[in-house]
Amino acid sequence: MELRERAREHPAGVAFGVIGLIALGLVLAYSLHDVAQASLNGLTLGTIYALGAVGLTLVYGILRLVNFAHGDFLTFGAYMAFLVNVTWGLPLAAAIVFGMAATAVLGLLSERLMWAPMRRKGAGFLQLLLMSIGLAFVIRSVVQWFWGTEIRTLDVNVVDSITFLGLRIGQTELLVVVVGIAVLAAVAAVVRFTMLGRRMRALSDDISLAEVAGIDTRRVILYTWLFAGALAGLAGALAGALTNLRPELGFELLLPIFAAVILGGIGNPFGALVAGLVLGVVIEMSTLVVEPRWKVTFGFVALIIALIIRPQGIFGKAKGV
Amino acid sequence: MTELLPLAVSFEAFTDVGFWSGVLVTAGIYTVVALGLQLNVGYTGIVNFGQAGFMAVGGYTMAILVLEAGFSFWLALPLAVLATMAFGVLIGLPALRLRADYFAIVTLAMAEVVRLVAQNAQGLTGGNKGLYCEFEGVNQTCFDDAWKSLSNPFLDWVEGFWPDVDPLFPLLLVVWGTVVIGIFALNYIQRTPWGRVLRAIREDEDAARALGKNTLLYELQSLAISAMFGALAGFFLALFLTTIQPDDYEPIVTFYAFGVLVLGGLASYKGVAIGAILLWTLLEGMRFVELPITEERTAALRFALVGLVLILLMAFRPQGLFGKKEEMVLGR
Question: CATH assignment of B8-327?
Answer without folding.
Answer: 1.10.3470
